[in-house]
Amino acid sequence: MATPNQEDELTMSTDEFLEAQAELYHHCIAFVKSLTLKAATDLGVADAIHRRGGAATLSDLASETGIHPTKLSNLRRIMRVLTASGIFSVQHSDVVSDDDAVYKLTRVSRLLVKSSSYQLSPVVPVLVDPFAWSALLRMPEWLATDERASLFDLAHGCPLWDTTVEDGGLFKDGMAADSRVAMHVLLARCGGVFEAVRSSLVDVGGSHGTTAAAVAKAFPHIKCTVLDLPDVVAGAPANDAAVTFVAGDMFEYIPPADAILLKWILHDWKDEDCIKILRRCKEAIPSRDAGGKVIIIETVVGSGSPGAQQIFSKEAQVLMDVFMMYIDGIEREEHEWSKIFFEAGFSDYKITPTNGVLSVIEVYP
Fold first, then answer.
1. Into which family does the record put it (predicted)?
2. Among residues 26, 27, 221, 267, which one is catalytic?
């Protein structure tokens, strides 16, 4: 008589075993897609294709990016991964050779063209980050103990924010690029959220004002202020007439305004810290009848309309959640958001999902 384990094995045919093995290996080496994407971004492959009028051979790419001629076949292998994963597209001629393929941009790789106003190439090294990866490799050890330090602290002996001070602007540039693209889309799709703000808005943790400047440009009636730490504000542009910069600590005080904006801030913090921040926000805004609200731009895990177009977005949401674990951050589901809103003293909220990873949340006192 077969044991339970043997019965499980016997339910799989030879083909099913092979398919399961291939699927397992695919998951194990999926990180290679991220590394080839970063390599292509660092080399400027998307820019090279763009400069060649939107179509380039391997020789074109090597010439444009400085690839050594002896590495042409290696470049072909990298591009094969990136075309299989949909980052680039490829067309082949009838002649089979290393240089028969013509590579083109897709909607994804167009976001990597640095001459575009809405390019996301600076975000790639923020997400494909050896510091984050080495921290996440400590998950089994971290999960098995009551260790209160974050994975990043455990792996590197300091908080993430200590390293961003000396990263040459990598993190700041990545967040600014994300804000330019996010606000371009969100102001078009969810502009009413901001248009309804009566006269003033404070962007908490808004760095050098990319998000606030976009709001001020779209809605000139709104006086926009950025609150950030003193060392951040010290490097802010001095000639930005549309945005005022204030140095301070969001845990201590937030300047009064009709609306407070938090973009990708709360996912960095545990619930108890988010509640403290939100209470400071509530102190800074008027009543709901007087137009007061907090605008949060974050991921709401599980949000979005059903359909095939949501597959990437929903997987990205849960992947981002585990990624954020490296600094003890979290991407929250709606019930988790609701819990911290009400514990912070707010009375109501409204979530406007998008087809991407972000949602716009309006929280009312």
1. Belongs to the class I-like SAM-binding methyltransferase superfamily. Cation-independent O-methyltransferase family.
2. 267
Q: Taking the chain, what is the end-to-end CA distance rounded to the nearest angstrom?
A: 66
Cβ contact 129:323 at 8 Å: no
Cα separation, 199 vs 258, in Å, equals 7
* pLDDT the model gives residue 321: 94
For 115-165, the pLDDT digits (tens) are 888 899 999 999 999 999 999 999 999 999 887 889 999 899 888 888 877
Q: How confident is the model at residue 308 (pLDDT cuts 50, 70, 90)?
A: very low
Our measurement of the distance from residue 11's CA atom to the centroid of its chain's CA atoms, rounded to an integer in Å, reads 41
Select the highest-mean-pLDDT range: 1-10, 159-168, 181-190, 255-264: 255-264
pLDDT in tens, 255-289: 999 999 999 999 999 999 999 999 999 999 999 99
Say if residues 351 and 282 touch (Cβ distance below 8 Å).
no
Residues 6+ apart with CB under 8 A from 153: 159
295 touches 224 (CB < 8 A): no
pTM to 2 decimal places: 0.88
Instruction: Look up residue 119 and give its two tokens.
Output: 């390019």
Non-local (6+) Cβ contacts of 315 within 8 A are none
Mean pLDDT of 322-329: 92
Q: Is residue 267 annotated as part of the catalytic site, yes or no?
A: yes
For β-strands 223-228 and 200-204, DSSP reports them as parallel
Looking at residue 41, its pLDDT comes to 97
Please give the Cα distance from 359 to 351 (Å, whole number): 7
86: left (phi over 0), alpha (psi -120 to 50) or beta: left
Domains, the chain, in order of start with CATH, read 14-112 (1.10.10.10), 127-364 (3.40.50.150)
Collect all residues with Cβ–Cβ distance below 8 Å to 295 and sequence separation of at least 6: 193, 194, 201, 259, 260, 261, 262, 360, 361, 362, 363
d(Cα 310, Cα 302) in Å, to the nearest integer? Answer: 10
Cα-to-chain-centroid distance, residue 291: 30
Tokens of 180: 């330019």
Residue of 231, 351, 223, 225 whose CA lies nearest to 299: 351
Strand, helix or coil at 54? coil
Contact between 304 and 310 under an 8 Å Cβ cutoff? The reply is yes
